[in-house]
Amino acid sequence: MTESNSSVQETVMDVNEIRKFLAHRYPFLLVDKVVQLEPGQSITAIKNVTINEPFFNGHFPEKPIMPGVLIVEAMAQATGLLGFKTMGDDPQPDLLYVLAGIDKVKFKHQVVPGDQLELYAEIIRHKGPMWIYKTEARVNGVVVTSAEIKCVATKTEK
């Protein structure tokens, strides 16, 4: 995986475009913008972590720490954007991108309010509706979480 660039990065997709591709909404949309995207290859997205996140009220009130499962969910949402953009430039409202598995997950550092999560994903394999990604979440260029994430694109029922 490539090293993080700590300088300000140009926005490739803003939250309004992200909402066209992902079904997630507040409080569960965990990607604020995309700063790098190579369809068929990789993506780098950003999640700004603020004290206003609803989970900090209970995790933990005196020492707020972002739950690891939500860091993994943020990485999975980034993979969804990469998968959809690899399939084409137009949103596909009849497809839902769902988590199918998580392997090799490692939590290395805590994420706290004020951190900016850099979500990186690269495609390992894609066969039919199954996608497998190598992912990392970084803060200030330091890996805080890594995982191999499997997702499936499924048709939605109307």
From TrEMBL:
Predominant location: cytoplasm
Coiled coil location: none
Subcellular compartments: Cytoplasm
Domain of life: Bacteria
Catalytic residues (positions): 59
Annotated InterPro entries: FabA_FabZ (IPR013114), FabZ (IPR010084), HotDog_dom_sf (IPR029069)
UniProt entry keywords in alphabetical sequence: Cytoplasm, Lipid A biosynthesis, Lipid biosynthesis, Lipid metabolism, Lyase
CDD domains the record matches: FabZ
Molecular-function GO terms, alphabetical: (3R)-hydroxyacyl-[acyl-carrier-protein] dehydratase activity
GO biological process assignments: fatty acid biosynthetic process; lipid A biosynthetic process
EC number from the UniProt entry: 4.2.1.59
Catalysis: reaction(s): a (3R)-hydroxyacyl-[ACP] = a (2E)-enoyl-[ACP] + H2O
Record GO cellular component, one term: membrane
Record family assignment: Belongs to the thioester dehydratase family. FabZ subfamily.
Described function: Involved in unsaturated fatty acids biosynthesis. Catalyzes the dehydration of short chain beta-hydroxyacyl-ACPs and long chain saturated and unsaturated beta-hydroxyacyl-ACPs.
Protein name per its UniProtKB record: 3-hydroxyacyl-[acyl-carrier-protein] dehydratase FabZ
Organism: Cocleimonas flava
Lineage of the organism: Bacteria, Pseudomonadati, Pseudomonadota, Gammaproteobacteria, Thiotrichales
Gene (UniProt): fabZ
